[in-house]
């Protein structure tokens, strides 16, 4: 006879109310992916362009005869009340002649405004920030909202980790699910693959390379560079990345839905992690129904530790630059 515990999660959590703020390519793709997974009983879509949100809501509703029944509608921030999870995918595009720092500053102001509204109407919700640069904007959302730091985090390097696992799997002839390696640090150019802990089917990756005897000495560097450059490659070809990140966010939401307590490389606020503090950056975190339950400290090689600290330094510098620029205004 099956154990009753097999059914404890699904009986306790039937479905969720999910809010999505920002209906660009990432936001709308995420709404579609969430609908296909059947995780929401109710989905509220918010965008500065109300007609866009209404259009997405109508389009998705017309697909509900083929999915689990879901109430989908365009709304305002007040409609976020009672949301279990809120996905933030809103941001502003770069203007001609605008510097990276100026764009960062404008997106930080947008994120602060969103944070004030979310904390006003849905202070107990779990918030997943997806807008890039995700680490910096997660930091500003958290600081402005004053919400529980266990419930505010960014999508971080969840997708980067998936990309790296896929590259290794394709090369070695395994399923990506059998490849265990993390990408930590910034979701960006200073990200750090943790090769020292990489395994395939319980065998250290370095040992697997010796068994395989198909790899040259630079193959891991190539994998790391391809992972880092993946978004640039896609943007060059089609203008944006949105399908894979939408699936990554849906995977995060599903982990919360089923209280799976999986380890994901989320962008979380660190107080004292390997000497790093007061920054949001991706590290392995245990995620469950009530948010981040634990942050795991990795045993890094000396080279990895140096690279991780440099990545944190880059993020802190970006935050300080934005704050300094705002003080001039």
TrEMBL record:
Principal subcellular localisation of the protein: cytoplasm
Binding of beta-D-fructose 1,6-bisphosphate, residues: 165, 180
Residues that, per the record, bind substrate: 94, 100, 132-135, 160-163, 241
Location(s), subcellular: Cytoplasm
Positions of the catalytic residues: 187 (proton acceptor)
Gene Ontology biological-process entries: glycolytic process; lactate metabolic process
Lactate/malate dehydrogenase C-terminal domain span: 157-325
SUPFAM superfamilies listed in its UniProt record: LDH C-terminal domain-like (SSF56327), NAD(P)-binding Rossmann-fold domains (SSF51735)
EC number: 1.1.1.27
GO molecular function: L-lactate dehydrogenase (NAD+) activity
Pathway involvement of the protein, from the record: Fermentation; pyruvate fermentation to lactate; (S)-lactate from pyruvate: step 1/1
One GO location term (cellular component): cytoplasm
Xref: InterPro entries: L-lactate/malate_DH, L-lactate_DH, L-lactate_DH_AS, Lactate/malate_DH_C, Lactate/malate_DH_N, Lactate_DH/Glyco_Ohase_4_C, NAD(P)-bd_dom_sf
Modified residues (Phosphotyrosine): 232
Keywords linked to the UniProt accession: Allosteric enzyme, Cytoplasm, NAD, Oxidoreductase, Phosphoprotein
Binding locations of NAD(+): 22-27, 47, 52, 77, 91-92, 107, 130-132, 155
Function text: Catalyzes the conversion of lactate to pyruvate.
Family the entry assigns: Belongs to the LDH/MDH superfamily. LDH family.
Assembly with partners or alone: Homotetramer.
Protein name: L-lactate dehydrogenase
Annotated source species: Thermotoga neapolitana (strain ATCC 49049 / DSM 4359 / NBRC 107923 / NS-E)
Name of the gene this protein is made from: ldh
């Amino acid at each position: 006879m099956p154990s009753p515990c097999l059914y404890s999660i699904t009986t306790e959590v039937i479905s969720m109310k999910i809010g999505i703020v920002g209906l660009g390519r990432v936001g709308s793709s995420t709404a579609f992916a969430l609908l296909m997974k059947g995780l929401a009983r109710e989905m509220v879509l918010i965008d500065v362009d109300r007609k866009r949100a209404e259009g997405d809501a109508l389009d998705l509703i017309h697909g509900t005869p083929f999915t689990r029944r879901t109430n989908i509608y365009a709304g305002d921030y007040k409609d976020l009340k009672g949301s279990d999870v809120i996905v933030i995918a809103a941001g502003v595009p770069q203007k001609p002649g605008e510097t990276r720092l100026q764009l960062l500053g404008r997106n930080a102001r947008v994120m602060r405004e969103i944070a004030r509204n979310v904390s006003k109407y849905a202070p107990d919700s779990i918030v997943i920030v997806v807008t890039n640069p995700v680490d910096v904007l997660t930091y500003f959302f958290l600081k402005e909202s004053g919400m529980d730091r266990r419930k505010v985090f960014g999508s971080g390097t969840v997708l980067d980790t998936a990309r790296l696992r896929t590259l290794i799997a394709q090369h070695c002839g395994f399923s990506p699910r059998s490849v265990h390696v993390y990408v930590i640090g910034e979701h960006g150019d200073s990200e750090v693959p943790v090769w020292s802990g990489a395994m395939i089917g319980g065998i250290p990756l370095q040992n697997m390379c010796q068994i395989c005897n198909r790899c040259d000495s630079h193959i891991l560097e190539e994998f790391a560079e391809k992972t880092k450059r993946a978004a640039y490659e896609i943007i060059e070809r089609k203008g944006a990345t949105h399908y894979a990140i939408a699936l990554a966010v849906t995977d995060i939401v599903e982990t919360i839905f089923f209280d799976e307590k999986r380890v994901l490389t989320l962008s979380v606020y660190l107080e004292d992690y390997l000497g790093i503090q007061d920054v949001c950056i991706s590290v392995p975190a245990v995620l469950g129904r009530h948010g981040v339950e634990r942050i795991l400290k990795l045993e890094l090689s000396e080279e990895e530790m140096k690279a991780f600290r440099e990545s944190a330094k880059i993020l802190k510098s970006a935050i300080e630059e934005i704050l300094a620029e705002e003080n001039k205004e």
